[in-house]
Structures are given as structure tokens and as C-alpha cells.
């Protein structure tokens, strides 16, 4: 049986913002948490994004050097490319899309 005020078949679902609010501590700990997040955003966030962009560029360069045959740029002998192929297979589709898309002036800015 359902209790008073409960509609059969209805269910309350938590949203992402509700989960974030539940994860944040309240009171003085909440103030300290907000302070830490603000300092991180002001100091380290840009550096971490730059590090991720650099890593992505290095990975794409590595795939270009090893799997350049797929685009018609033979750099390494096929033997070494075939040895590395099992490690690169998951990234080939996105790499090809990135290498073959049209470039714009605004791409260099961001």
C-alpha cells in the first residue's frame, strides 16, 4: 500500500546539481571547500588544460609518425607500424577525423 500523498508509479530522481550539493560539506568546511576550488580555478586550472592540450597534440603527432601510411605519409617502415598497431587502433578514427578536417584561423587561437 502507498502512504498518504504518494502517487503510484511516480519516482523522484536526483539531478546532477542535487548530487553536487549533497557532496559539498556545509558550514566552515563548505567555506574552506569553496576557497580551495576558487584558488584552484585561479591558479592551476589553466595549466592543467594546457597540459591536456599538449598531451593530445603529442599523441596525435605520435600516431602521425607511426600510422602516417594511412594518410599517404610513409615515415616509419611498415614493420614498426604493424608492431604498434594494436595499441593505436582505438584512436585511429578520431585521429583521421582531426587530421583531415578543414583548418580555420580561429583553430590556432583556441
Structure overview:
There is one protein chain. The protein starts with 15 loop residues before the first helix and ends with a helix. With 110 residues, it is mainly α. The N terminus is likely disordered. The longest helix is centred in the middle third of the chain and has 23 residues. It contains 6 helices and no strands.
Write a compact overview of the structure shown.
The protein has 110 residues and is mainly α. The chain has helices at 16-23, 27-43, 45-67, 78-88, 92-100, 105-109.
Can you give keywords for this protein?
0% strand; mainly alpha; elongated; 110 residues
Distance between the termini: 58 Å
For the sheet with most strands, the description reads: none
General form: elongated
Q: Low-confidence parts, pLDDT < 50 over ≥5 residues? A: 1-14
Oligomer: single chain
Order of helices and strands: HHHHHH
How many domain modules? 1
Helical fraction: 55-70%
Average the pLDDT over all residues and give the rounded result: 75
What's the helix count? 6
What is the number of E strands? 0
Strand content of the residues, in percent?
under 5%
- Return Rg in Å: 24 Å
Structural class assignment:
mainly alpha
Write the layout of secondary structure elements.
Blueprint: H1 16-23, H2 27-43, H3 45-67, H4 78-88, H5 92-100, H6 105-109
